[in-house]
Amino acid sequence: MIILGINAYHGDAAAAIIRDGKLIAAVEEERFNRFKHCAGFPAESIRYCLRAAGVEIEAVDHIGISRDPSAHLHKKVLFAATRAAKQMAGGRRQEAVATIEGTGGESGNGKTGGTGNGNGGIFSQIRDRLANAAKVRDLKDELATALGVSRKSINAQFHNIEHHRAHLASSFFVSPFERAALLSIDGFGDFISTMWAEGSGNSIEVLGQVEYPHSTGIVYTATTQFIGFPHYGDEGKVMGLAPYGKPRFMEEFRDIISTSEGGQFRLNLDYFRHHAEGVDMTWDQGSPVIGRIFSDEFARRFGPPRTAGAPLTDRERDIAASLQLRLEEVGFHILNHLHEHTGLTDLGLSGGVAYNSVMNGKILLNTPFQRLYIQPAAGDSGTALGVCYQIHNGILHGERGEVMEGAYTGPEFSNEQIATELRESDLIFETYSDTEVTQRAARDIADGLVVGWFQGRMEFGPRALGNRSIVADPRRAEMKEILNDRIKKREPFRPFAPSVLEEHTGDYFEQTHPAPTMLMVYQIKPERRAEIPAVTHVDGSGRLQTVSQSLNPRYYQLISDFHKLTGVPIVLNTSFNENEPIVCSPREAINCFLKTRMDVLYVGNHAVRRNLKRHG
Fold it and tell me: What is the pTM of this model?
């Protein structure tokens, strides 16, 4: 039984494929077409998944997408009709709604949503949304065109899986838990922003939800825009900025988003545009662009919005700190209610807000939950995975057994393929044995070199986890500035991550719950912070990756070799890219190495050094 899952027509398009419940491949479209957070249809991801499974599309039994236009249809119609009546009564033209999902969303026609072309009014909105719904409901034509096959040759049964049910499935059916409380929390998907449930065996029972237009993701994205970070996915920057500020705007943010009984919360809609005016959203198989979500009330309360690129002031830092703390308060409010309702101490977390690793790292300290599972692509790309398992477990009642501990589900390349690329690039390279390659790289890191580390299968999700990483010495305080200036070309306040040997986590961090996919921030023990300054954030925290020998033996060996040389069982890990998606192929790794000032590139068992001249 082969099942293909798809996330399409909004940000972080992706595909995943399973056979008899076993995960074969999962990958984001951005890694192939090189547009960050690529939206649209994931044709290249689907092609890769089919290759990895060794099948043609004709052999796929079930195909699903993480959207269901029929879900909550009566609520969507009622909302649109009510708003249209209000605007017509006010003599204003009806603009299209942009429903924001995660940090992106579903638009009217898949290219431009929100105010869009602005000339069709309510009739344009209805026409565009119906056209988009038709695309979502029937993928056969686009799939056949993308793969160059006839529509009739696709024999699979098609499924529309509600957005948040796909999220919930992705956090439960591949978790180690037989029973668990589940929370999906993001911007919006299928008219819902937040859904909580209980998972048991092959079933997921929804217990509660928060509906459009109320959303924690909307609050975070709107505030991110207000303080001058306008790009899709910039929320992580604000999370990194927050420790530099003081939460002096808590009264304002408790007015912006308030909580109530039963795990519920509501927005003060005076601060937002998405529910009343619509929001511009543009994409065409490229990176999404989202128009302004915050309303003029934000400026009346906080002052003029910061212009992108302008100097950061204490105001922006304090807004970020207040936003982050309020998100945590609301998140813990929902989770404490969820625990009270279920009595369970195992938690599966998903949705775009589940990328907020600062909040995640505090969950076990601020709620009764004792174990936490977050699959590596917790955001919208992970719904492709959730679709596969909602079909396999929830619909077909297949046996559970897959536990997704890591994220290594993408393309890999042999040493022979890599050597061919190096020769075609006219590069001098050395080749080492398996033992030598980690020892040499560890010595280079200990000597202060910046190392590109390209190994094995590419990671699924936004984090580089030791297969598509740039690795450096965490003991060198200057390494932050070196990486930001020479390699990453990014804001200096953003932290770098520590990868730690799993068995040494408690030696350096105040919590020891495993974090293999780098989605938890823990406090570093005060007495250890001076030892690893390059990975210690301003508040003494680190977004750690716990590395086990079973999950990633080569990366584990690299850190072990570094440990033997230095006495420190930690390396600095950042993603292998420069203002682009993480590299996928050897060619992209070579190009990134050549255009930055990395010192040495380890790609498979081969190494290219900066001080060796190119031929010619």
Answer: 0.92
